[in-house]
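Re: weekly structure request thread

Next one in the queue (502 aa):
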Amino acid sequence: MKDESLGQIKTRGFSTIELLIATAITTLVLSAVVLVSFGGQSLLAENAAAADAMNKAKDLLEETQTTARKDFRLINPIPETTEGIYTSDVEVTTLPDFFTKIVTAKVNWRGAHGQDLNVTLDTVVTNFTAVNGGFTCDSVLTGNWASPQYSSYNFGGELLVPPDALDKYPITDMDIFQNKAYVTVNNADANTAPTFSIFDVSDPTEKPLFLGSLDNASTVSSGLNAVHAIKNYAYVASAYGANFDTCLQGANCSQLQVINISDSANPSVAANFKVPGVGGSGGQAIGKSIFYRGGYIYLGLAKTGSGPEFNILDVSDPVLPKLIGNYSVGNGVNALYVKGKYAYLATPNDEELTILDIGDPANPTKVGGFDAPGGSGNGKTVDVVGNTLYLGRTLGGNEFFILDNSNPASSLPELGSHDFGSESLRGLIVRDYLTFLLTSTKLHTWNTSNPASLSAHAPAFLLTNVAANAAGTALDCEGNYLYFSSEDSAGKGYITQVKPGL
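Done, posted below.
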């Protein structure tokens, strides 16, 4: 009995222990199930947040692609913004070809357990329409543009090889294209000086390196007024032809010259073109301004005695320019810009800006314009970015205007303007939220992100720092660097490189 009772007690004891163990295991299992369940809910929440962040990044890139179709120059960094739990920004990097940008959209947030999480997406945008001869200035601003640095060089004495003892080079225009600077001069030294020169500017921290030059009409003392370079050719607006009523087609009578620049050390004139039916004398009808886009040259002339001042030429074969269409402005075309189906002409007319519809190149038609208030200023420079137009003129009230160009064929509402006093605008370049303005006496750097409240971003650079009585003549840009030319009262020309400060 005792043994049997003991066995029963032992059995009951084992049963109790097993029950306790089973209960403990069950509790552990239930706890694990609860933990897994709660962990699953957290994971689901994280997945939902990640998917939302991914969509936000995709939306940012889609907005960039939409912007790119409107204007490649509008693709710029977007500062960090916060919406709910997400912080996002867009970074933009321009590649060395100047026509391709890498756009990176980043979305950051904190996970349920405080961990830093992010989604990053990239896309590549290329400006195909400009590859053969477009604007190579980088709209993406890098470095300290509140304190720019300047390096100035005397054109004849320091840059040209060999230097010219007379050193009179009134620079009329510059085009910086794919690491080379193409410079035109209106020859003030009779027939001795080159009117077209090429420099290597691949290292903007160093002095431009002279490569080659030419005098494109050795028997004529006038020179060139404007240049637009593409891959193997430079198109120049020529002042050769004192009397276009009587002169004949050729080097001494042409408003457009095509220069072969495939060999930078030995540039050569490949073609001359005189606009048929255009007459004038005493400086009339000379080539004044030029713009290239998509196989067409848009050529602006000084006021003519007879015939149109705005001309469209087919240069699909660069050595055989063909006149397609033209338009009589009634005055000289100081500067022009082509965007979409419109040509924007800055002129000395009372209406300083004329807008032409060039959708049919054979029949340019005026559709709009802008007459600046406060005097009869002379339209001198124009730039268009997206739906915003920037116009500079000579003295006459405000010299700088920012206009809404959303409907150029109907109206151009004024968004902002500024009076530079005794300064006349000679050139302007827009880069994201900054506009660089070359005047007769200074280079200004302005914040134009809010046209209704313009402000100086950096102290104005006095051209007297370059030379006594220096006046600005031309402004261009490539990558993150600017270049401007100036001329002193003796006719000496200077080129100044501008880079961001440290």
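The chain has two helices and 32 strands. The first strand starts at residue 78 and ends at 83.
Next request, please.
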